[in-house]
Specification:
CATH superfamily of the largest domain: Glycogen Phosphorylase B
CATH architecture of the largest domain: 3-Layer(aba) Sandwich
Number of strands: 23
Strand content: 15-25%
Distance between the termini: 21 Å
Structural class: alpha/beta
CATH topology of the largest domain: Rossmann fold
CATH class of the largest domain: Alpha Beta
């Protein structure tokens, strides 16, 4: 495969990543992104900042363009029996790592010539004022749902978010619900926030029937009908109300064969729920499977009757899309981000009302027409969420923020392969210079382009313009440049993969052919930007 020139050196802070399932869906998202970055961005270099407790686990992601760096002097603090009602993200950061023992972030990043720091677990531990920082924030539960937090806990987490806002160039929110929470509680400028929905359901590959039966037999689920709730046992996941609702359902329908199955980490909390199940006399109907590997989890999905999702608060709602992928109807809470994810393909209930939840279980148990309608709508809804598009959005944000940083003073281009093809989006950083300069780009649309014309959009912070390039023809774009310098973002639509058009085996996502990209000076001379060397 051809290489894009030039590349960025991106550090990814994975020190908060925990063994097993304690990070919840955040860990699955991050590991999925690593795989996608390897496939879609071979032109960039990624440095994985790792801790002693995850260094070996992350070995499988190492390539010549993605390497691990073991950060010394990190201290593992074992999980306490009683943690209190902490938000899941900050809990796993602050309760697991002693940040006082970190080596200086400046020496770490600058020594490795890093252009951008990505913090997928939020904490800006290695922030450097000279290096742009992008972080994911999953939710603001401590402000949106204050019931679970003491005043001290709220203050602590708010201070953390304020610090993050001060250090970040861009915060990636996993839903518009989270983005709106930032605007509501912190008056955050909208252009500091980006929304990239989580699309990781594609990692779950459907198993053949014999493999499903084998796995279900090994965990006691063979031949059983069950509603499935995959969630760690954090308080906001609302397991206790679900147990109450299921008890109501069983009293109303004592002959029902619909069981209830839980998966998730956190052993102490699981034991507390098991005691409640015993008191209700429902031990034969409710199963706790613990943390499952991906293949066994897939088998549980394929064997279930439905997803039951009673969470009081979510920043996104990954299980909704996983259920839709396997053709399962979804019964979901109407709280927080969940309606944003599920749309009209879900039956919603008030998660605070056990009677409503029990009623939904009854609906799904005896109405096959409703089940078929929900499954059909679920497949349609799923088309809005694509894993590769998610990864492209992350990469695009990285490139824009790195190129926007004032420390990158050279004129460079990022997003053009060395055979002349562009990515669907690429960026040109122009250094300051005399008035009267222009940027000249010559595009070419091939005869095999999938539509009759391509749309070319150019934009900076101050301006934007749009052009069309017909199939089989060329289009020259002349863009007047400001003397202060600027970053020009170029977007091509539609993009395409040659392999999907049966042209060849090339799996790159491509825009148009760029025949030349020149910086024209006032004196009539010009220089090729494509020929300029990378800043790294």
């Amino acid at each position: 495969m051809s290489e894009l020139q030039p590349s960025l050196r991106i550090a990814i802070d994975l020190t908060p990543l925990r063994p097993g399932g304690e990070n919840g869906g955040a860990k699955v998202l991050v590991l999925t992104l690593l795989k996608q970055f390897q496939e879609l961005a071979p032109h960039h270099y990624f440095l994985l900042l790792t801790a002693p407790w995850n260094y070996l686990e992350l070995a499988q992601y190492e390539t010549n363009r993605m390497e691990r760096l073991l950060v010394p002097d990190l201290i593992y603090i074992p999980k306490k029996k009683k943690l209190g009602l902490f938000s899941r993200l900050l809990e796993k950061i602050f309760n697991k790592i002693n940040f006082n023992n970190f080596i200086g972030s400046s020496s770490l990043l600058k020594k490795n010539k890093i252009n951008l720091l990505f913090c997928p677990f939020s904490a800006p531990t290695y922030a450097d004022k000279d290096i742009p920082l992008v972080a994911i924030v999953y939710d603001l539960q401590h402000l949106d749902y204050q019931f679970f937090f003491t005043a001290q806990e709220q203050q602590h987490r708010t201070k953390f978010i304020v610090d993050l806002l001060n250090k970040c160039q861009k915060i990636i929110c996993i839903s518009d619900f989270t983005r709106q929470s930032f605007i509501k509680h912190f008056k955050t400028p909208p252009d500091k926030l980006a929304v990239v929905p989580i699309s990781i359901h594609e990692r779950l590959v459907e198993l053949n029937e014999s493999t499903v039966i084998e796995h279900l037999s090994s965990i006691g689920l063979a031949g059983r009908k069950y509603a499935f709730y995959p969630a760690n046992y954090w308080p906001h996941k609302n397991h206790r109300i679900l147990l109450t609702a299921y008890g109501i359902y069983k009293k109303q329908f004592p002959n029902s064969f619909l069981d209830l199955v839980f998966t998730g980490a956190l052993e102490h909390e699981e034991n507390d729920l098991k005691e409640a199940v015993d008191l209700m006399g429902l031990r034969e109907n409710i199963l706790f499977l613990g943390f499952l590997n991906q293949e066994v989890l897939t088998a549980v999905w394929q064997g279930c009757q439905c997803l039951i999702f009673p969470s009081l608060y979510e920043g996104f709602g990954i299980p909704t899309l996983e259920a839709m992928k396997f053709g399962k109807p979804v019964l979901s809470s109407n709280a927080a981000s969940l309606p944003e994810v599920g749309g009209d393909a879900v039956i919603y209930f008030d998660p605070r009302k056990p009677d409503e939840i029990a009623s939904c279980l009854a609906k799904i148990s005896d109405n096959q027409l409703l089940v078929k309608q929900l499954v059909k709508k679920g497949f349609q809804r799923l088309e809005l969420f694509d894993g590769k598009e998610m990864a492209y959005q992350y990469l695009s944000i990285f490139e824009r923020e790195a190129l926007n940083q004032n420390t990158l003073v050279k004129t460079i281009i990022s997003g053009i392969y060395d055979d002349g093809w562009s990515a669907p989006e690429f960026h040109i950083s122009i250094e300051p210079g005399l008035s009267g300069r222009t940027l000249e780009i010559l595009f070419e649309t091939p005869e095999f382009y999938p539509t009759s014309k391509a749309t070319i959009k150019l934009r900076t912070k101050q301006r934007k313009a749009s052009y069309n390039c017909l199939r089989g023809e060329s289009q020259k774009v002349i863009w007047p440049l400001l003397p202060t310098g600027e970053v020009v973002t170029v977007q091509i639509s539609p993009s395409f993969q040659p392999s999907q058009l049966n042209l060849n085996s090339d799996q790159r996502r491509l825009g148009l052919m760029v025949r030349h990209c020149r910086l024209n000076l006032v004196d009539g001379s010009s220089s090729s930007i494509l020929a300029l060397e990378s800043v790294v």
